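fold-stage: in
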Amino acid sequence: MTRRTRLSARPKQAAEGERPAGRREPNPAADARDRARGVYMISVAAGLAGMHPQTLRIYESRGLITPQRSTGNTRLYSEDDVERLRRIQELTSQLGMNLAGVEQVFELERELARMGKRIKSLERQAERIRQELEGEIEAVRRSFRRELVEYKPLGRALVPLRPRSSRGPDAANRGYAS
């Protein structure tokens, strides 16, 4: 192989702002699916979580973990499952909780996540309504500008005439005709 052939066989440098060839763009949805896909058998998942495989079976019977199943009915644990097992391990060994307490913690975390989603939904709805109201207020302001006439005060105020009266001698002196 000559020097010229070796140089041309090198991968091309990516231009600024371009992704190098062979690298895919990060896809959070695909990454989440990969983390949720069951790939570890029970012995491997137990080893990764630092516990005995029988403990995983107990957690499954208590409903704390729900592994996927293969066509042969083998338990398959995902990255998310292993993280959950580590969380159970932390709660039971470091914080001294029993499994009933762990179930309550997980239920409260689910409820907290539901409430967070609800709050975000309500915030989006409130922002939409705020924008609609601002638009309506602006439309009302524009309509008032067309309808209102500017007030310009006169130099002298108009004094209303008093009704004619024959009362008293001054009636003729005040410029009233009799």
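fold-stage: in (second)
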Amino acid sequence: MHGIGMSALGVPYGQKCIPPKGKAEIMPRTVKEWIGKNDDSKAPPRVRQRCHDRAEGKCHICGLPIGRKKWELDHIIALINGGENRESNLAPAHITCHKTKTDKDKKTKAKIAKARGRHTGANQPKGNIQSQGFAKSAKKTKIDKSAIPPLYYRPMFRKVKT
């Protein structure tokens, strides 16, 4: 029988099972690696737990312990950069760390796609197209303004008699 707070191997929870020298660690059974059916499939709770245990409860980005904070599974190699949706490519990360890494992955993908488009000729450089411009008009002759009578002063308001 196991004591309270003991794992199946007789080791208290939270401690590593260190095998004796010269002997391999005894695993009760091997578990097949989870592979998502598509890129949108969410990892089940058992896979989340295995990933959390494999990383020893630490964020794989910043290395700080996750504790009881909310966390997400992060693809170590992002799906948009060619990573796979499988258990070996998943690791726990703080939500803020995960968001920062995702933004960096998007920028990296955009930069690669832009360079690839230039090299393959898919993206043509945007050149300035010079327009013909307006046609030149004929020179107008100047009017002699001395022949025009000047405008007389007209008050804006009338004086009211009281």
